[in-house]
Amino acid sequence: MLNIIRQRLTNQQLAGTRFQTPAEIVSWLGAVQSQDYPGAKWAVGQRLQGVTDTDLDQALADGSIIRTHVLRPTWHFVTSGDIGWMLALTAPRVMTLMSYYYRQIGLDDTIFARCNEIIARALAGGKQMTRAELTIELERAGLSFDAARMGFITGQAELNGVICSGALRGKQQTYALLSERAPHARRLERDEALAELALRYFTGHGPATLKDYVWWSGLTTADARAGIEMVKQQLISETVDAQTYWFSPSMAIRTEMPPSAHLLPNFDEYLVGYKDRSAAVKEHYNDQFTELGSVVSYNTVVIEGHVVGTWKRTLKKNTVIVETNLFRPLTAVEDDAINSAAQRYGDFLGLTVQTTQVSVSA
Questions:
Q1: Which of 175, 176, 276, 312 has the maximum number of C-beta atoms within 10 A of its C-beta?
Q2: Across all residues in the chain, what is the average pLDDT?
Q3: Where are the beta strands (DSSP E) in the chain?
Q4: Nearest to 134, CA basis, from 124, 149, 119, 144
């Protein structure tokens, strides 16, 4: 019988990993949602052994992973090799979905084209600039935009394949020309890209349904179904409660797994990667996630694949304080597993860890 939770933990590289570098994890998953940059770094880091927060900054700096708008209207990490075909496949639909908001704030294709030209000229030759610096470049050309409009302008430039993330400058994000950051990005015909994205998703996220894949990819249902059809010979399908789940046979489930706990960041692929999250979140816990609107917006405590609480961090000079808010009492073994997960997070940050439990909700 299909064990959805155990298979997902294995395929998502949370129950042990076969990879060594951030780019390998991002490539395996296809893309990693990353609008919360510190959280996204931990999402990648906890799927590897011995990788640190600084290593993730370096991967972004050297361009092995890129942070840009792709799949859905938000940031994702993708690899420099995948960004070309993935952007070509998904960006047109994202731009169509965003067109209403563009009209509402007075932005159109003519303005975007002019801004893209100015931005490309300013960044040419390996330059990297912050959004504030790009705003100044546009002002010099006679175009003035507030912060909200600049967010749409840089986002559209990303979707058009003009810019992507550059290296961090202190704590500030910068932009660089995509053509210079990923000069060897792969290009695929559209059908090839539909097949590749489907295979990548169900290999790294399966078992998952068509609806899950439509949500994650941002594709139309017709395109998502077409992609599955092209790769179904490389996948396994099983039906559970009238839902068809697809997954790859390439990863063997670890049948004997020690009690495990994970401190997942907000928007981690383990939750945000699915439209239906009921396998990991018990229905009677859903009312715990009303303040921010959805479980994916929270840092979650996960034991044996199930969400059992939330957590937050407080950074001190040499210490990170991990506070957990649990929905049920823990066994001694589970408590030890959470402490081990907190220690892994401290090692990732290079900080001493202090743990504290705020409350146990009924």
A1: 175
A2: 94
A3: 32-33, 65-69, 75-79, 163-165, 175-177, 236-240, 243-247, 261-264, 300-303, 306-315, 319-326, 352-360
A4: 119
Report pLDDT for 29: 98
Return the number of other C-beta atoms located less than 10 Å from residue 137's C-beta: 16
Give the pairing type, strands 319-326 and 306-315. antiparallel
* Angle of helix 221-231 versus helix 210-217 axis, rounded to 10: 120
Among 33-37, 69-73, 165-169, 289-293, the range scoring the smallest mean pLDDT is: 289-293
Specify the pLDDT at position 249.
83
Q: Is residue 12 helix, strand or coil? A: coil
Which is more confidently placed, 344 or 287?
344
C-alpha to C-alpha distance for 348 and 200, rounded to whole angstroms: 27
pLDDT number for residue 253: 64
Q: How many CA atoms lie within 13 A of 75 on its CB side?
A: 21
Reply yes or no: is the peptide bond before residue 22 cis, omega within 30 of 0. Answer: no
Tell me which residue has tokens 């792969």.
186
